[in-house]
Design goal:
single chain; 391 residues; alpha/beta; eight-stranded mixed β-sheet; eight-stranded parallel barrel; 11 helices; 21% strand
Amino acid sequence: MKPRILPDAELARLAREHGTPLFVYSARIVRERFAELAGFDRVRYAQKANPHAGILRLLRELGAAVDAVSAGELENALACGYAPREIAYTADLFDRRALAALARTPVPVNLGSPFMIEQYAELVRAHSAPRAITLRVNPGFGHGHARKVNTGGEASKHGIWHAELPACVKRARAAGLEVTGLHVHIGSGVDAEHLARVCEGFAHEARIATEAGARLDTISSGGGLPIPYREADPRLDVAAFTHAWRTLRDELARELGRPLSLEVEPGRYLVAEAGLLLAEVRGTKRNGRFEYLFLDAGFHNLLRPALYGAFHQISAVGHTESETAAPKVVAGPLCESGDVFTVDALGHLLPQALPDLAVGELVCIHDAGAYGASMSSSYNSQPRAPELLVE
């Protein structure tokens, strides 16, 4: 059983005080994960994983920069104290609200589609925005914990296709812009093998961009760093990952004859393990061969299992691993058959072993700090769950 981020007595107290469902985040674990990435010149937090104001402020205090993929995220970062130079707007398009926000508050931009070049150049001419830009490259392959979060290859909408990179650098120069950085991101929750493959291919993209006229001063390894959702999952060798990218940075810097800044852009890695979703048992029943355990939390709180078949370990507060347990399908209150936390990638039921629990007892859904509250909804007119950052 995965360790809980707080003692059971403390979780029970928080549930009594704030009700359930309840997201609880540990500042200690966020700090620990951030410290593991100290080998990068800059850690840029991908706030889409969890835009909780307390987490954003904590990471700013630790020295993180931040990524924004919408006007709302840009405004959120500013409200949490980030200076414009610490924010990067990254997207595959500019909607009208984003262009208006960038006109009010110019921040560095990372463009993921060729058509954005002229649109941004027009903004620069009208509002004196920064002329330096970063290009997000699609290296031609991708990977992730599920097909829907694979952000590389021809089946992904993300990034500038690698073969078009030289033409886009020239296109940017013709529009009066200067390409000063390259960024690559192939998917969310990718494995170490694919992360290493990205590193190996990035040098080629950097060289052809330079030949086309880019003057690089920043390279970004992107994000997608995995965490072990299952106890048997291997933990990412952060030291090896960091070493590979530092070696690449130094090699390219020697070739270019100038220093390069190396960024990493984690979201999930910093916050997933720092959070859990606390829920109350509301009843049990048997339908055929399946025993169902009903909670007051559903996919309106944590969508990942229903959307991706993502695994989240579930444990019972106040119970030990040695207690007798039996397979249970853990379900929520929504009027949807898909409102189940224990499913595989094809939507088949995948019960988890839990002890017999009475109405009013509590369970933890682990590793819910990323893409839990940030993807939540008010479906069935359910209220969103409160979020607590605990020191």
